[in-house]
């Protein structure tokens, strides 16, 4: 299964944003979701988790270079 979360920072205090991915990871382990996709503009949510991020704009530009 896949869970999509769009801009969770809109309803979260900055302090909670920093803990958001850790909470999601714990929930994922309990429920064994195969994928969780989060769209965010919040550096607090990404925090020190750059290794699990995917920059759509950067990858989109790479795909457009060949056109």
TrEMBL record:
The GO terms describing molecular function are: ATP binding; ATP hydrolysis activity
Q: Which residues cross the membrane?
A: none
The record ties this protein, via InterPro entries, to: ATPase_AAA_core, Bact_Antivir_Def_Nuclease, P-loop_NTPase
Which segments constitute the ATPase AAA-type core domain? Answer: 1-47
Q: Name one Pfam family in it.
A: AAA_21
PANTHER family assigned to the protein according to its UniProt record, in alphabetical order: ATP/GTP PHOSPHATASE (PTHR43581), EXCINUCLEASE ATPASE SUBUNIT (PTHR43581:SF2)
Name the record gives this protein: AAA family ATPase
Organism from which the protein derives: Salmonella typhimurium
Its taxonomic placement starts with: Bacteria, Pseudomonadati, Pseudomonadota, Gammaproteobacteria, Enterobacterales
